[in-house]
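Researcher: Last one for today. Full complex below.
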Amino acid sequence: MIAIRNLKKSFRNNTVLDGIDLDINKGDVVGIIGPSGTGKSTLLRCIDRLETPEEGEITIDGKTIPLSKHDRKQTLELRRQTGMVFQRFNLFERKTALENVMEGLVTVQKKSKQEAKELAMQELERVGMSAWSEHYPKHLSGGQQQRVAIARALAMKPQLLLLDEPTSALDPELVGEVLETIRSIANEGFTMLLVSHEMSFVRNVANRVIFLDNGKIVEDGTPEEVFEHPKSQRAKDFFAKMYLMKQPEYTI
Amino acid sequence: MQILAETNLFDFDLVIKQIPDLLKYLPVTLELAALAMCIGIVLGLLLAVIRLKKIPVLRQIAAFYISIIRGTPAIVQLYIAYFGIPMFLKYMNLNHGTNFDISAFPGFACAVFAMGFNESAYNAETIRAALGSVDRGQIEAASAIGMTYPQMLRRIILPEAMTVALPGLGNSFIGLIKGTSLAFTCAVVEMTAQGKIMGGRTYRYFEVYVSLAIIYWAVTIIVEQLLKFLERRLELPEQIDKAATSEAERQEEKEAENYKYDSDTKFEKKLSEQYST
Ligand SMILES: Nc1ncnc2c1ncn2[C@@H]1O[C@H](COP(=O)(O)OP(=O)(O)OP(=O)(O)O)[C@@H](O)[C@H]1O
Ligand SMILES: [Mg+2]
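Model: Here's the assembly. Have a good evening.
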């Protein structure tokens, strides 16, 4: 189990995360939803120590690591146990798809080139990108880049995979291939925190949904509970706004 | 030309004839420039990282160092190195019991260090800008897979920053080749110094300087071409062949294309009705 305790993060006078507690079971796929600017990205970034919170700690793999203190060794250890998939892919521009996936295996896990290459090829196959292994990011479509980025994160065998709106920088016709990739890895039992605005996808793939608002977890339950029977007014308003915007699609 | 030849005012043949003699000293010039450039790049990178990472104390020292170097003429720095380094070694011998052979420390080394230090201050800015131009996303991605900063620097940041810094560093290398003509201050006989000696012998100073100008110009053109070649080498390929796709992957691709989670449109519709009322 992964436990996050009392996570607090402010940007100056703007409190973004106000004491978040979160327990994640192994194999859980937790969907995180909420209005824009409530700190969904900040939550994931704090967990990966890309952002330094004022308070909070995480227990992962039986070890408790404070998130607020900057300890180089502990930060590296934490990052080695978590994987991150970014909204804008963030592939290494001067490396091929294969080299992107191999990079962590070679430099961080100190595997031999040969072994890293084999493992990386397997990961590329998993996301359906093995035919593009020699391509550089600039040769790949956004959806393909994101699949390579997912392979890069998976290759490190993370205890926890963090995905921050993995499809929101993609053209609509490319969203499907990435969602399908995420769904298939979710089925393989990876523990994931998934921030997404694709509500129906979250419902489909997550076994637990969290609604974040004003720095707090406002709703927490199964997709049915949160989407269909939200307890808070904030969540109801959010869904109402969301689906009101979408409505014309269905009335045609 | 007729008048020039008759009056013996300008001896063009001499200009050409002297070139081989001067070229014998070209290796000295190039060695000076190359070694100074190495120091300039390594030290410049160090200064750039110190300033970029805002490392306390070192950062102030770096700023002070750059300020001094940029605020003094290169020729003064060369003289200071030429007289200062032996003095420093003497001081070490006297006070710390070391046993440096001062007379063996050549002017050549003084010139290399002085020019290398000078170069480093200017390269620091070029390199810092190049390092800063690497997009934050890649750095975050490298952090997220657990790379340390030195690993990131070597494997991700530098390869990309190098392509940005190359034109600027190339330019300063060309400047440095010509700047080596100041090495006479450290009693180094390189190409220009040799030219002066030859001019002193024949009193044909004008001709010898024209010869030198031709050589420097040619060297610069060659270096420019080398840089262009290097830049092209660093470019990523335009297009790449796709490898064969396995049957399983083709299947998956099809699946992905069709993956529109059709059941969900029903779900969205249901919710939209629920919330719109
Ligand atoms: N570096 C920063 N400096 C100051 N404020 C920041 C910084 N990063 C984020 N914020 C603020 O923190 C808040 C939360 O941002 P965050 O990106 O986590 O929101 P989000 O829930 O991911 O939103 P979205 O759905 O639009 O991606 C926002 O109000 C944002 O302005
Ligand atoms: Mg966000």
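Chain B has two domains: 22-235, 239-277. The CA atoms of residues 77 and 194 of chain B lie 22 Å apart.
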